[in-house]
Amino acid sequence: NAGVTQTPKFQVLKTGQSMTLQCAQDMNHEYMSWYRQDPGMGLRLIHYSVGAGITDQGEVPNGYNVSRSTTEDFPLRLLSAAPSQTSVYFCASSYGGWGNTIYFGEGSWLTVV
Amino acid sequence: ILNVEQSPQSLHVQEGDSTNFTCSFPSSNFYALHWYRWETAKSPEALFVMTLNGDEKKKGRISATLNTKEGYSYLYIKGSQPEDSATYLCAFIGGTSYGKLTFGQGTILTVHP
After folding, report:
1. How far is it, in rounded angstroms, from Cα B67 to Cα B73?
2. How close, in Å, is residue B46 to chain A by CA atoms?
3. Distance between terminal CA atoms of chain B?
4. Average pLDDT rounded to a whole number, residues A69-77
5. Per DSSP, which regions of A1-113 are E strands?
6. Cβ neighbours of B4 in A, within 8 Å
7. Among B11, B33, B30, B32, which Cα is nearest to B20's?
8. Residue A98 CB partners (closer than 8 Å, separation 6+)
9. Closest C-alpha among A2, A35, A6, A8 to residue A106
């Protein structure tokens, strides 16, 4: 059972480049979300989805796009990378709502230079 | 934006000490509170999901209590070991299971041998 899989684990981008962080889960979870983690700020919600075809914005959505065409996958797109997007990104999923156990991927370390 | 505060920000204890830390959250419209243990370069690991006022949960040497009326939860570690060194995160959900998860900034625990 792979759980929540994120790729890539590490990435360096130049300012203005675009890229996609991939997230996949094999647990048939309807709920998926993306967080970023910055020093001293905890995990902040970027975008989330409560099922295929449904997405919504979190606390810090600017500069990011998501889509949810399948239950398994929830990619996060950086449209034009900025140094302020240097962070650690976590994908998470849950079955039946955020009041149940939430499973996290191992994180993606992104540096924008 | 909901205010979820954790204290202290960091804590150093000696092996064998018992310790506790606090998560404060809005006392109105409570749905659930999560506790996670997070080691650097790994996925956050779920410890507890707490939903009822007065809940007490235990997992080995770690336990947690919940007071939804006053808006706080305590996490206790009995007889700390060096392997307990990690960041402990709490996350609050208000309203319903569809509500967004708001994380505290974490308490960094270091247990010295």
Report:
1. 6
2. 7
3. 39
4. 97
5. 4-7, 10-13, 19-25, 31-37, 43-51, 54-57, 64-66, 76-78, 87-94, 102-104, 108-112
6. 42
7. B11
8. A31, B32, B93, B97, B98, B99, B100, B101
9. A6
pLDDT, average across residues B2-30: 93
Among candidates A41, A50, A105 on the partner chain, residue whose Cβ is nearest the Cβ of B98? A50
Q: How far apart are CA B32 and CA A20, in angstroms?
A: 32
* Two structure tokens written together for A90: 């976590």
Q: Which residues of A touch B93 (CB under 8 A)?
A: 98-99
Question: Any idea which residue has 């919600």 for tokens?
Answer: A45
Question: What contacts B34, CB < 8 A, 6 or more positions away?
Answer: A102, B46, B47, B48, B49, B50, B89, B90, B91, B92, B93, B101
Phi and psi angles of residue A84, each rounded to the nearest 5 degrees, phi first: -65, -10
R_g (Cα) of chain B, nearest Å:
14
The 10s digit of each residue's pLDDT in A2-38 is 699 999 999 999 999 999 999 999 999 999 999 999 8
Average pLDDT of the residues in B14-33: 93
What pLDDT shows up at residue A2?
A: 67
Which residues of chain B lie closer than 8 angstroms to A58, CB-CB?
A: 100
For residue B29, pLDDT beyond 70: yes
Place of tokens 């010295």: B112
pLDDT digits (tens, 9 = 90+) for B48-97: 999 989 999 999 999 999 999 999 999 999 999 999 999 999 999 887 65
Report residue A46 CA to chain centroid gap: 7
User: In the predicted model, is pLDDT for residue A1 greater than 60?
Assistant: no
